[in-house]
Amino acid sequence: MGISVNNATVSEGGGDFVDIPDDIYAARVMDVSDMEKSVNPTTNEERTQIVVTFELMPTAAQVEAGAPSEGYQGSELTRKMWITLTDKFLDEGMVHKKSMLYALLDALGYDMDGPLTFDSDEWIDMKCRVLIKHNDKGYPRIDSLLQAVTPKAAATPRTGAVVAGTKKQPVGAGLATRLRGNEAFE
User: Which of 21, 40, 68, 146 is deepest in the core (most CB within 10 A)?
Assistant: First the structure.
């Protein structure tokens, strides 16, 4: 049976949506959901996912450039990331290097070269950085995760960070300067 509607209107949306400019933001894990089963709308296959909610912490420079300092009605500025847990992970504990789970664990500072031991409850309040990009529909989403910048952190070839005493050219529109001055992690 179909639907029947009279006098429907088109709107730009509303509710608790807060737009945020594309950029790299300091973030902390606010919440991790329990595992949930859902159906992939593209393949119609069942999948197991968790939802990780991040609080974004824009710098003063990012707020000055147009980023909101807070979310809807004064709440935290948040974004969610859905992470699919593969059968290999659920059955055998294998984390694929191209998975979002791998990216999250790496961004949170886990040693990805050895055996992994973690509890998602321990992720609460852990910090990383998130790259926000707008999707094709114009909504800001988490595109990728990066490790948190710490002032004392020495570079390692794996992270591509700057080794003490060397300088790297900024990769785009002042991002390197903003990241070095990210007071959220000082």
Answer: 146
